[in-house]
Amino acid sequence: MDRFVEMQTFCAVVDAGSFVSAADALGLSKAAASRYVSELERRLGVRLLHRTTRRLSLTEDGERFYARSRELLAGLEEAEAELHSRSGAARGLLRVNAPVTFGIRHLAQLWGPFCELHPQVRLEVTLSDRTVDLVEEGFDMAIRIAALPSSTLVCRQLARTRIVLCASPRYLAAHGTPQEPADLARHAVIAYSYWSGGDEWPFEGPDGRVSVRTKPSMHTNSGDTCRAMALAGQGIILQPGFLVADDLAAGTLVELMPAYRSVTLGIYALYPTRKFVPPKVRALVEFLAEHFARPHPGW
């Protein structure tokens, strides 16, 4: 006799409180439901149910076996649901949050090709540099740039980017070139408001980790504004390679103190849970992972 059917019938009897109701729910006769449970008890060598004319109740062994059986049945249901989510078509509304500069410079041109591949998906893309709560705010997925992703979310690293200290040749000609981090305290710097260390800028140098407290001439919550000010000769910036790589290659910005490196950040796709990942989310994560796996010089 099928052990799965025996277990399923036993749990159905416990849940329904009677053989008749369980048999109806499973599409069996009362006699068949009773036979499955009796065969289960015979095979296990224990009584699982106390049976009276009025009610059913679990024995001590029955309580333990019911708890384990429920776990096994739930695991099977999860496995089937996950397989279905993997094989199903990507469709429906997909709400994505991403940082502003990265979203404009490196994601905007990807939405069209993604929608061509998945025409049943409707995108809603929100750009914001603040850390959104995916669950509370109803986002299916977020792109985050951080040293470490949130431990409460599932993440997939798409790429990495180093944070680069740089300035324009015009600024350096007028104010000199800093040689070590301590020199930055005497220079004009354009600070990014969401920098995790505030005005404290960290570096890893020949003698280990060192940091300097800067005195910004300007704060802004926009990486693009930091870049524009640096290009205008207004100060030194600490910005990600994905933003300034082209300027460094063109010589319009110059990397400073190459012996002292700032942090390297991961670029992550995050979503709330790895259970029952919707096909639309899985499709976008795989699409982005494939794109960002290609070399990105200067990042």
Describe what this molecule looks like in 3D.
The chain contains ten helices and 13 strands. It has two domains: 3-87, Arc Repressor Mutant, subunit A (Orthogonal Bundle), CATH 1.10.10; 91-299, 3-Layer(aba) Sandwich (D-Maltodextrin-Binding Protein, domain 2). A hairpin with a 4-residue loop joins β1 (49-51) and β2 (56-58). The N and C termini lie far apart (62 Å). It is elongated and about 95 Å long. α1 (3-16) crosses α3 (30-44) and α2 (19-26) crosses α3 (30-44). 42% of the residues lie in helices and 24% in strands. With 299 residues, it is α/β, with parallel strands linked by helices. Strands 3, 4, 5, 6, 11, 12 and 13 form a seven-stranded mixed β-sheet that branches. Strands 1-2 form a two-stranded antiparallel sheet. A two-stranded parallel ribbon has the order 7-10.
Present the secondary structure layout.
Elements: H1 3-16, H2 19-26, H3 30-44, E1 49-51, E2 56-58, H4 60-87, E3 92-98, H5 100-117, E4 121-127, H6 134-137, E5 141-146, E6 154-167, H7 169-175, E7 190-192, E8 200-205, E9 208-213, E10 218-220, H8 223-231, E11 237-240, H9 241-250, E12 254-255, E13 264-271, H10 279-292
Parallel strand pairs: 3-4, 3-5, 7-10
Antiparallel strand pairs: 1-2, 5-13, 6-11, 6-12, 6-13, 8-9
Helix pairs in contact: 1-2, 1-3, 1-4, 2-3
